[in-house]
Each structure stands twice: as structure tokens, then as C-alpha cells.
Predict the 3D structure of the following.
Amino acid sequence: MEKREKKFYQAIKAVISKYGIKNIAIAEMLGVTSQYVSKILTGKCLPSREQLDKILELLTESGIPITDQRNLISCFVEDKTGFFYEIADLEFTAKNQLEKKLISDFRMLNVDAQKKTLSFINQLLIEAL
């Protein structure tokens, strides 16, 4: 059996390096030691779902673009499950009933309609930034 390459730790290292986020800021946000953060950044462990939410909160507060955050979520889900889902980032971060309804409605669309919907959502995101 072929061992899969872990992606999350590479993605988070790239983001914190690119935007100058300090490991200690992540540790403080998570309420953990810097040694634990080092384990995350070397791929020795994955944060919990709750910890990832806190990391995303820190990234949002730091003004990190949504595209970089979405990539982190996708890598996290892929490392956790072994599968990549195009809408995993939406599923993962649904925080209220409106978002959950959007996801369930999205799943009822055919592939072409899903592509159009994602294109529309991406355009809205770009305009909002």
C-alpha cells in the first residue's frame, strides 16, 4: 500500500511563512505549547476540528485571503479522510443553518449547475475582498 503525502502541514507552513505569522501566535490562540505547534508544522500531528477553527479565526483576524484559508481546509480534510472534496471547505466551516442549507441545495444540482454556482460564489468572494 502506498503511503499518502500529508498536505496540511505543508500548506500551513506556507501560509504562516508567507504572511509572517509567528508560531507563538498560533500556540496562544490554541492554548497549547509551541512544541505542539511544531508537531503540527512538521506533520507529526493534525489539529482537531476545533483547533483548526481557531487557526482560521487567527488567519481571518490577520487578514489572510479566503483562498489561502480554503486551501488549508481542503488539505486538512484530505489528510483526515484520505479524500479530496471540492466543497469540503464549505461543509467543514458551515456555522449556521443558512450555510448548511446552501450545501444541501448545492448537492442536488447537476455537475454543470454546481460549476456555475461555484463560479458565481467565487466572483462574489472576489468582489467582497
